[in-house]
Amino acid sequence: MSQPVGPKAEHKPGRTTFLERRVYRRRRLIDAIKLLPVLGACLFLLPALILGDGSGSTALRLVYFFFMWIVLIALCAVLVRALPDDPDAPADASDPAERNEPREPAG
Amino acid sequence: MGRSVLLIEDEPNIIEAISFLLERDGWTVRLHTEGEGAVEAVVAASPDVVVLDVMLPGRSGFDILKELRQGAARADLPVLMLTARGQTKDRELAHSYGVSCFMTKPFSNAEMLQTVRDLAEGRAPAAGL
Amino acid sequence: MVTFNILVTVALAYVVALFVIAFYADRSARRGGNKWLRSPLTYTLSLSVYCTAWTFYGAVGNAARSGLEYLTIYLGPTLVFLAFWVLLRKLVRIGRAERITSIADLISSRFGKSTGLAVLVTLLAVMGTTPYIALQLQSVALSFAAFAPEGTDVNATALWVAAGLALFTILFGTRNLDANERHHGVVTAIAVEAVVKLVALLAVGIFVVWGVSGGLADTLRIIEASPVAQWQPDAGRWVGMTFLSAAAVICLPRMFQVMVVENEDERHLTVASWAFPLYLLLISLFVLPIAAVGLAVLPEGANPDLFVLSLPLALDREMLAMLAFLGGFSSATSMVIVAAIALSTMVSNHIVLPLWLSLQGPRATVSGDVRGVMILSRRVSIGAVLALGYAYFRVTGGTAALASIGLVSFAGVAQIMPALLGGIYWRGATRRGALAGLVVGFAIWGYTLFVPAIGLLPASLMEAGPMGLSWLRPQALFGMGEMDPLVHSIFWSIALNSVAFVAVSLVTFPSPIERLQGAAFVHVYDRGGGGAGYVGGVAEAEDLLVMAQRLLGAREAQALFQGAASGQGKTGYLPDVSPEFVAVLERELAGSVGAATAHAMVRQIDGNASVSVQDLLAVADESAQMLEYSSQLEAKSKELEQTARQLRDANEKLTALSVQKDDFLSQVSHELRTPMTSIRSFSEFLMEGGLKAADRVRYSTIIQDESIRLTRLLDDLLDLSFLESGQVVLNAQVTALDEALGRAIASAGLGGLKVVRAPGGEGVMVHTDADRLSQVFINLISNARKYCDAAAPELVISVRRGGDHVDIDFVDNGAGIPRDQQSLIFEKFSRLSDHSSAGSAGLGLAICREVMARLGGTITYVPGQGGAAFRVSLPLGAVGQDMPPA
Q1: Which of A24, A8, A38, A2 lies closest to A84, judged by CA?
Q2: Residue A69 is nearest to which of C30, C78, C266, comparing CB atoms?
């Protein structure tokens, strides 16, 4: 999987090194969101790889997985809720009402 | 042998009027009612005078006149042009193509008859120049 | 005791409720919607088609056999949704931007709109989904059987279920051929079913933990003591299955349908990113407890795949069992419905339609009614998919083959993943690469997993390999025999699939369209409104309009074309056929027929695809680095181009008008002098006397007729100058449009013309000057009578209400009006050249235009309708600016 490092930001000439605080926050939040699946993969897959041969308790594992699961979900919910609306978002693609308007059969 | 006129015109009532007028005077009137094939009709009928309307379906009277004047066969044939548009530039155009006489509708019967007679006998028509 | 009959009644009532919900959701969506319908919650719940009966019943069975392993099926999708920012957002953005209709469409569209790839992915999807549908039918049949007295025919139950599902899917899945392929009714019903199955499973779980085992701690103790605790994680299987379920959640046709195609708003993903994992967590929360308690409480040999149902039944909780039954029923039906819609879209767009088109010959797109064929082929495909599922169930039902098919299906559709991910992240991926990867992966999956799973390979071949080549044994390729067969198959198929995909992509060279599409997909976030489209030659706008009308419907197509024309600074319905416009049109069409077909159709119309444009595109592709600079230039030159076009249009029109103004005087002169000539001539004959009586009468009649003609012409001229100067007084009243039309038809005088009134618009009342409106209608009808050159002239009048106005269309079956004259017909005396023999002075349409302007409406010529077509558009409320509404 290749990286989708906001190509918009890279191509635009005249971007300053010092971003507005709000934009900077937003970028770091997105970084955190991008790292979520990596964290998830570590939490979900590593125990199985490391403890593969062990004779651990199933009940304990059950509690472990569900606990980590809910933690990840909560983390994700907090992060996306903190994310402000994208100021650069293209209006055409994210405004379904406008795009679909002529499609709606006349009432 | 009587003298003949080829009438190229598309308005039925005007055709009827001119035919009645000329036939009463002893002319043979032949008829063609559209722009297409008018030149061929002239060649085939070989009339003494051609009466040609300007606004015809398919082809304008000016075109027909131009082709008649360029054709070697009857380049000197007298042609009387009729128009209902009555614009000076039409008159000038007709003369530049070599029309014999140019008349604006409506015309008086006497005027029409006299003009056709004059043209057939090679006189300069009294009216319409 | 819950009898079988009560159960059937409850199930039927539930189904009826779903029909009602779907019906109202569809209706309210069509009326402009309902907030709930478009909420992220509905979107998240609809994603739960991931959890089928295989989850609802099978997860417990799986847990009873393999302990915690069932979790991997839900952890994989959780990881994918946590990765939504990188992956799903891009998929959804691409899906919307390119108007993707299915996963086959996505792959085909990305790799140069290739029909071959679309067919391959469609086949893969059908092969992977059919057994899965069979599994759902079996689970419903078995759950019925759990309540039924001995000897009830479960096959009949399955057949009825399949038939009912086909009916539901056809009703709500193909109701309208909406270009964006969204089915509000279905999605809402699915969301409701998602709630039912979650509530059912939670209820059984809560009952088991707190009702049977006496609390959390006790439940954990029971789990520790149960056989399920003997399971120890196998790293390979754990990782392999997590990977597999992650791939499946993206690639399964039904998931792609709800996740990408039915997505209303990209922002819904941000909610689904945590809410859908939460749903999965809740669904799997009580699975292990139910399995452990079931094993402890129920007699030995009870089928763990039915614990969710048999546990409450055994403990005499009949209402709970009923709820569990409905939960399982919901899981099965929602999967089948969405899968059938997704598959039928693919089969119809990528197999049936292209076949039909090629059978129809080169210009089919213009002459055939594609819309009807499309809906029919969707419906037939849905029936066929369900019939196939039922047949599969009848053949393999009850065998272990069916029970294990869930993972086999997952592994099959996972073969699409390399091409999918490569396609959206790597511009270098090529069509041949994708084809090679898919074929290799598909073949290995078939050989190592699918065929062995359905038991088609002889035991000797399984053990010794084909022709004794032991390194080719289906479950031990290259001697890797110690691997779990599933992990073995996933490993080899995905690994070799990816290798083939990458290697072939590296050595082949993509066509310009592929490169264009590649750039559009990979850089989807960069894209403004402009599209990656391509047109080889010059298609006639009118031909394209005719085709678009067949596919999108007349109104939508006309709106699209009109919008595009005004975007170019033109008026009317025919924009310039610029590459941008063709790209937009192609995307719109792709929404109904898929990218490959839409592309083929547009290319069919434009005929001669020229090499030079492709070359140009290749160059443009090459210079992507200069995009930033050139796009500024492009914007400027576009602006200039638009201004120039406007100027050119205005200039042409001015020139034409000035010529016309000159002509106007000549024309008036001609129209007045011609009758006067006859009048003067004949009146002179009459004055001379000596005519026959018959001639006298005749000549007098001619004089009278010509005088009337003169009078009428003068009336028209005066009327027109009145209208133009704005001195006309309107007499507005409320009139029934029907009556006005009827009166006009009666007084127009039809001659040989047949007038057909299309149904619709009955009872439309307009507040307007009825006499003036009738004048317009009469004019249009007499025009059709005079100029329609068909052997059996016919005029179709149709009325349609749209918002605040009503449109009345007059369409005849003659030759229509040539392109170059369409913009002049409403000018004075613009009688068309080849009609000049007719007697009209050509003021009629000019008067119509003025009248309509005074009435606050418009009259326009609508091209591409087969004959001459005029549209009179009238506001429903007021009449003109000087007329306050009553």
Answers
A1: A24
A2: C78
Q: With beta carbons under 8 A apart, name residues in chain B contacting C702.
A: 13, 16
Q: Is C664 in contact with C692 (CB distance < 8 Å)? A: no
What residues of chain A lie within 8 A of the CB of C176, using their CB? Answer: 105
* Domain assignment present for C855: yes
Question: What is the spatial distance between Cα C103 and Cα C424, in angstroms, rounded to a whole number?
Answer: 13
Q: Which of C335, C370, C396 finishes a domain?
A: C396
* Residue C596 maps to a domain: yes
Q: Are residues C791 and C705 in the same domain?
A: no
Between chains, do B106 and C676 touch, taking CB under 8 Å as contact? yes
d(CA C774, CA C213): 84
Fold that domain B4-120 belongs to in CATH: Rossmann fold (3.40.50)
User: Are C697 and C824 within one domain?
Assistant: no
- A42–chain C nearest CA distance, Å: 10
Q: Are residues C82 and C227 in the same domain?
A: yes
CATH number of the structural domain spanning residue C721: 1.10.287.130
Low-confidence ranges of chain C (pLDDT < 70): 1-2, 32-37, 149-152, 175-181, 360-370, 397-403, 454-483, 527-540, 543, 547, 550-551, 579, 592-634, 660-661, 663, 761-762, 829-842, 877-886
For residue C440, being part of any structural domain is answered with no
Measured CA to CA in angstroms, residue B5 lies from B38, B49, C237 at distances of 13, 5, 107
- What number is the ipTM of this complex? 0.90
Our answer on whether B and C touch (3+ beta-carbon pairs < 8 Å) is yes
Q: In chain C, how many domains are there?
A: 4
Kindly state whether residue C493 falls inside one of the protein's structural domains. Answer: no
Give the residue from C725, C743, C778 where a domain finishes.
Answer: C725
Min Cα distance C557 → chain A (Å) is 9
Q: Kindly list the residues from chain C whose CB atom is less than 8 angstroms away from the CB atom of residue B55.
A: 670, 836
The token duo for C881 is 């600016």
The token pair that represents C151 in the structure block: 């000897």
The number of C-beta contacts closer than 8 angstroms across B and C is: 67
Residues 6+ apart with CB under 8 A from C769: C730, C731, C732, C733, C854, C855, C879
Residue C831's Cβ-count burial label (10 Å; 0-12, 13-18, 19+) is buried
What SS3 state is found at C873? strand
Q: Where are the beta strands (DSSP E) in C384-462?
A: none
Contact (CB, 8 A) for B119 and B125: yes
Question: Average pLDDT of B93-102?
Answer: 86
Helix, strand and coil content of chain A, in percent to the nearest 5, comes to 65, 0, 35
Q: For C684-698, what is each residue's pLDDT tens digit?
A: 888 888 888 888 888
The fraction of chain B above a pLDDT of 90, given in percent, is 21
pLDDT at A96 over 50: no
Residue C780 neighbours by CB under 8 Å, 6+ apart? C810, C848, C870, C872
At C629, is the secondary structure helix, strand, or coil?
A: helix
Q: How far is it, in rounded angstroms, from Cα C52 to Cα C50?
A: 6
Q: Locate the domains of chain B by residue range.
A: 4-120
Tens digits of residue pLDDT in C221-244: 888 888 877 777 777 888 888 999
Q: How many CB atoms lie within 10 A of CB C173?
A: 23
Using an 8 Å CB-CB cutoff, list chain C residues near A93: 93, 96-97, 266, 527
Tell me the pTM. Answer: 0.61
CB contact under 8 A, B14 and C682: no
Question: Which residue range forms the structural domain that includes residue C562?
Answer: 526-620
Of C86, C281, C803, the CB nearest to A73: C281
Q: Are residues C289 and C339 located together in one domain of the fold? A: yes
Packing angle, helices C184-206 and C4-30, rounded to 10 = 140
Distance CA C475, CA C481 (A): 7
Q: Which residue from C671, C673, C681 is facing B109, i.e. has the nearest CB?
A: C681
Let me know if chains B and A touch, i.e. at least 3 Cβ pairs under 8 angstroms.
no
